[in-house]
Write a structure and sequence with these properties.
heterodimer; A: Ubiquitin-like (UB roll); 3 helices; B: 288 residues; mainly alpha; Ferritin; two-stranded antiparallel ribbon; 11 helices; binds fe (ii) ion
């Protein structure tokens, strides 16, 4: 039985600082196996920083959008989705707490 | 990406990455000889950081050479073939513990001035690598300051050792930022300015170095080995003796004092560790 030749791949590295923290992208590295990638990730990116968990993902397994899509994200007015678009409510509440709305006031 | 932009980046980042690795060599000589356990741990940590910087930068350079059908091995071999140079400061000897201190304090201090500028450049992957690197450089500088201050506060012999190390490193530090303008060696600078990979000239960086470090060197009671060094208060520029730039050119041809020895050391490390690379690229067949 012959030894199997391993190919090197680029891995993207993410680290989670605590259980509640999001996994944050650190950098990338070159490794011949996920095990090697995890060891290198620890040695290269987590010599000082503490981590709860480290992820390594082969770069060619990541599906991502590019610069063209980046523009699409900020094209539209989205205030209807955000509290920003409802700021006028505060003023209404202030007014109606002082002078409650009555049926008479309506036309 | 324009071709000359890519070529400039490859040259810059590969040289930077290889220099981080070569930079670990003069310091690593001092790991077994560090005066205390604490110093040994600290310099070992610094050496490990520098090799880590090499890894980050080679990773960035690798992505740039990939479309040209090249990989990391080609970059590492470029050093042996003489197509990739390593930084002039790493061609110098580090004969005493004070040299280890001066390297951490002033060589890394000079490096952070250049890297701080490069981190604002136009190529984001390089800038991201530099951000990580710079965070660690601050530790390197303080590690060096700590060694130098301890020696400056020490015996007469220790102070003298520190002064002699400064004398050895002053010229390499002037060389560090490269030649001043209007030199045939600065053509390369212009492309960098054009592509916004840098926003300062070699001379502007060197002046920054003087502003920051001359007062500190003097504060430790050391004498800078240049009688012409002085600050022109009106123009806020430092005057200094121009070193012999032909020496700098010789270093770029790997004809510096330690060029050959360091390349040989690097080459033997590369050969001696071949088996590690072999192990990492094979999965042993297991009998079932
Ligand atoms: Fe470094
Ligand atoms: Fe450093």
């Amino acid at each position: 039985m012959a030894d199997e030749r391993l190919e090197y791949h680029i891995y993207e590295v993410f680290a989670q600082e605590s259980q509640m923290a999001p996994a944050v992208h650190q950098f990338s590295l070159l490794a011949s196996s996920p095990d090697m990638a995890l060891i290198l990730a620890k040695e290269n990116f987590l010599r000082r920083q503490k981590a709860w968990s480290v992820w390594v993902v082969r770069r060619d397994h990541i599906h991502r959008t590019g610069p063209a899509e980046a523009e699409m994200f900020d094209r539209m007015d989205k205030t209807y989705r955000e509290t920003e678009g409802y700021r006028y409510l505060k003023e209404k509440w202030r007014r109606y707490k002082q002078e409650p709305l009555t049926a008479q006031g309506m036309t | 990406m324009p071709d000359d932009y890519r070529q400039y980046l490859i040259r810059l980042i590969a040289m930077h990455g290889i220099s981080e690795i070569m930079g670990a060599l003069p310091e690593k000589e001092w790991v077994p000889r560090a005066p205390t356990l604490h110093r040994k741990l600290a310099i070992l940590a610094k050496v490990q950081d520098e090799l880590g910087h090499g890894q980050l930068l080679l990773r960035v350079a690798e992505d740039l050479v990939a479309p040209l059908g090249m990989n990391r091995e080609d970059l590492l071999n470029g050093l042996f073939q003489g197509t990739i140079h390593f930084h002039n400061v790493f061609h110098m000897p580090a004969p005493t513990w004070a040299d280890a201190g001066i390297i951490g304090w002033l060589v890394d201090g000079a490096a952070i001035i250049t890297q701080g500028m490069l981190a604002q450049g136009s190529y984001a992957p390089y800038c991201r690598a530099l951000e990580r690197i710079i965070a660690e450089e601050s530790f390197h500088i303080q590690h060096g300051e700590s060694i130098c201050i301890a020696l400056a506060e020490g015996t007469r012999a220790q102070r003298q050792m520190l002064q002699e190390a400064l004398n050895r490193w002053w010229e390499p530090l002037i060389f560090f930022f490269g030649p001043p303008p209007k030199s045939e060696l600065t053509k390369h600078q212009d492309l960098g300015l054009m592509y916004r990979l840098r926003n300062k000239t070699n001379e502007e960086l060197r002046q920054r170095f003087f502003h920051k470090y001359v007062p500190r060197i003097q504060a430790l009671g050391l004498t800078i080995p240049d009688p012409n060094l002085r600050l022109d208060k009106e123009t806020n520029t430092w005057h200094y003796t121009q070193p012999d730039w032909s020496k700098f050119k010789a270093i770029l041809r790997n004809e510096g004092p330690m060029s050959r020895a360091r390349l040989t050391l690097r080459h033997s490390a590369w050969e001696q560790n071949r088996w590690v690379r072999e192990v990492l690229s094979t999965r042993a067949a297991v009998a079932v």
